[in-house]
Each structure stands twice: as C-alpha cells, then as structure tokens.
Amino acid sequence: MTKRALVLGGGGFIGSHLVRRLKHEGMWVRSVDLKRPPYSPSPADDFVVGDLRDPACVRHALEGGFDEVYQLAADMGGAGFVFTGEHDAAIMHNSAQINLNVLECMRNERVGRIFYSSSACMYPEYNQLDPDNPRCSEESAYPAAPDSEYGWEKLFSERLYFAYARNYGFTVRIARYHNIFGPEGSWNDGREKAPAALCRKIAMAPDGGEIEMWGDGKQTRSFLYIDECVEGSLRLMRSDFTGPVNIGSDEMVSINQFAAMIMEIAGKQLRIRHVDGPTGVRGRNSDNALIAEKLGWAPDRPLVEGLAETYRWIAAQVREAASRP
C-alpha cells in the first residue's frame, strides 16, 4: 500500500522542496498552505489552499489518515521581519494557533508520526554574544532567553508537542533548523533571509559598485542548503530519536565572509557599506554532535556549493524582473 504524507506549509520554501522529495520516494502527498508555491508547480497529489489557523481547515487536511505529518507552517521571515518588533503579535499568535489546532485535531485522527520544525532562534541570547564561540548545543536551551518573540514561540511549541506526545500517545520528532537557504525561497518580498538578500543585492549591483549590509558584518552564522535540510528531516522523522536535534551546518562564517563568497561566485568586486539594521544574535553555529551520535549522519556539503546554486537562481530572477515592463 502506498504510504501517505501530509505537509503543512507545503507552499513555502522548505515545504515545497520536501513535497518534491516525498513524491520522488513514491508517497501520496497532500500539501496545505495559504497559497501555492510561487516559483514552480507543486507535485503534491492534493494541494489544499487553506488557513491552518482555522480548525476546520486542519480537520479537512487530516482526512484519510497519514503515515507521516510534517508541520512546517509558521508566520516567519528574515531579520527584517522578525527583529523589528512590528510583527511580534502576529508571529506569536498565528504560529501558536496553527500548532494548537494541528495537535488538537490530530487527537482523533489516524496519524503515524508528526514532525515539527523548530528553530535555532529558540537558543538563549546569552550563549550567542561571542561571534567566535557561540553555544548552540541542544541541552543549552535552558535557562530560556531567546532574542525574539519568534524564538519564544518556537520554544513554547516544542514543549506543546512534547506535552501532547506524553499525554495522548503521539509519536513526535522535533528538529531545530539553522538558517536554511537555496533556490525558490523568498528573495525580494520583505521576508527574505540573509543569503537571499545578499545574493539579490550582489546580482543587482554593477561590478565595482556598492551594496548595503546591516550591522558591521562581523556577526557569524552557519547556513544549511535546502537538500541537506530535507535529508536530515526525513532521517530524523524515520529514526527512533525524538529530538529536539539541530539540523544545520557547522561551517561558520562571518556575514562579511559570506558576502565575499557570493561576490566571488558572481565574479564581482563590490564595496560594502555597513548601515544600521536588525542583525539578531552576534554568533550562531549548529552543534552537530548529537545528530551525528543519534542518526549517524550530519550535514557536510561545503557552503560554497549550495551558495553557487542559490546565486544562479536569484540572479536569474533579478534578470527576469528587470526585463518585465
């Protein structure tokens, strides 16, 4: 019998790539989101355009039973969306409402196991003040002190999923994603993250020109290419380990170094003008000791490889947008 998967948030960046992978494996897939993927058609067998903040939408999505449910739906974006404070209420309300609906509606449905995508944003700010030595191991989450309401909501929802697992017998898997990037993600709508924003700025700038960067560029991050994110998510989902576990790269770079990598890919020499703007914590890097121990696997693809593919895609988007009247 063909296995069935449900991807909530399947119209988004990670969700649309996950749907493609599940279909490649031969599963029957239902995808649910407010809108369809913007850059390529979804291969889902059934795509439901609906609002998961509405319990009726969740109940409809769960009809038929599923072997695997992936809950990726959230109100989120990059630093320009998350760290300004202007969207805090919506971020917390919308994402929490989705997770509350999903878990409550699942109590009476046939579901094998559910995957929840948390975020490295839930780690304490006090462990990420030194850009050269951030601490993001899974056990460092407490005492809790995320640097954003987005991070607080993710931490709350982790606890929510584990509470439902304990009380109602759910099989839950939880991952903490670290800065996922790749083609077909937001790049110009105000919700784009640093990789897409820098690729766009560099693609648009003439050789010898200038780009703006928020902050001094000395803040550090690691970035994980989308294919490895999907691979790690499936390995965790189908393992005996509950999590939470980091799914991210441990190749840490400063944002200045990151921009230099993109410029080299683009074949451009550009000046960087540092300006005030939201930057998040000073340092963040995925600690992969636990995922290697529990899954016998950890992301290892060099950052530059995924970055080259991402830049080519965004540069093509920039050219296409410029050619439109």
TrEMBL record:
Source organism superkingdom: Bacteria
Record's keyword terms, sorted: NAD
Domain NAD-dependent epimerase/dehydratase: residue ranges: 5-248
InterPro entries (alphabetical): Epimerase_deHydtase, NAD(P)-bd_dom_sf
Gene3D superfamilies, per the entry: NAD(P)-binding Rossmann-like Domain, UDP-galactose 4-epimerase, domain 1
UniProt name for this protein: NAD-dependent epimerase/dehydratase family protein
